[in-house]
Specification:
Number of domains: 3
Largest sheet: 5 strands, antiparallel
Strand order of the largest sheet: 6-5-4-1-7
Strand content: 15-25%
Helix content: 40-55%
Number of strands: 11
CATH superfamily of the largest domain: Cell wall hydrolase SleB, domain 1
Shape: elongated
Radius of gyration: 31 Å
């Protein structure tokens, strides 16, 4: 959980202060109250005192939670919000429903920072204090997300497209192979990118003329269009792109001959 409450000591201090203040005000307003209280049945007095104590504890808890948000705010959105270079300026990034920002609060516009984003948003686009505490309990319960620059958003989009392309070619070439066999096909592609003998991009290697049959026949395009790619192929794509490699420096694979065999494929 993002918010792990640590309220014990602070709650007791706040509660003590509130009890003292409340009792002082009562006695100051009515000098006879102490004498009257002595003539009141003990059990009848304890019940409202317990209720008061519970209310004070709840107030103390809210105070502690709110204090954790000092100088911070939560994005007030269910999706995403633009961040501007300056008030009414150009858009430089976005923040999300679970984005917590450091903030310099202004009347109409507030300056925020989160991740590598420093810019301005409308103050009404932020939640502060108890409102932030209440919403964060839901939107930030599992994870938070930094604001992103437009460049970071574009880079993430390209990365996801590359993962999908790798997963699709793995599915076309090794969809019926073991997980290791799937990773092996991805590793061949990564080896080619690094080799200097082939194009140095994922797309360049996969669509190089005369290399991958599914790319030439249109099967790869159909798989990409359908989006019907098994999760295991996505996992194999990510692993191979992150360096997993069961086939060493092999640059080729086929179903006929090679230096060694893994599943139905020979690698060399």
């Amino acid at each position: 959980m993002f918010f792990e409450k640590k309220k014990g000591i602070v709650s007791l201090v706040l509660a003590g202060c509130m009890v003292f203040t409340a009792e002082f005000e009562v006695f100051a307003a009515d000098p006879q109250s102490e004498a009257q209280a002595m003539n009141t049945n003990y059990e009848m007095e304890m019940a409202p005192l317990a209720d008061t104590w519970n209310e004070i504890s709840a107030m103390a808890s809210v105070a502690v939670d709110t204090q954790e948000w000092y100088g911070k705010a939560l994005a007030n959105t269910d999706s995403e919000l633009d961040v501007y270079a300056e008030a009414n300026g150009t858009v430089i990034g976005k923040m999300y429903s679970n984005t917590i920002v450091t903030v310099e609060e202004g009347e109409e516009w507030s300056k925020i920072s989160s991740g590598s984003v420093v810019g301005y948003v409308r103050t009404e686009s932020l939640l502060f204090g108890s409102a932030a505490v209440e919403r964060a309990a839901v939107t930030c319960a599992e994870t938070t997300r930094d604001a992103q620059t437009l460049e970071e958003i574009e880079a993430e989009k390209r990365k996801q497209e590359e993962i999908k392309l790798m997963a699709a070619i793995i599915y076309c070439e090794a969809g019926n192979q073991s997980y290791e066999g799937k990773v092996a096909v991805g590793a061949v592609i990564m080896n080619r990118i690094e080799s200097g003998r082939f194009p140095n991009t994922l797309e360049g290697v996969i669509y190089q003329r005369g290399q991958f049959t599914p790319a030439m026949t249109g099967k790869l395009a159909r798989v990409l269009a359908s989006g019907n790619i098994p999760a295991s192929c996505y996992d194999a794509a990510i692993d191979s792109m992150n360096g997993a490699n069961p086939i060493g420096n092999a640059l080729f694979f086929n179903m006929h001959s090679g230096k060694f065999k893994l599943g139905d494929h020979y690698f060399s």
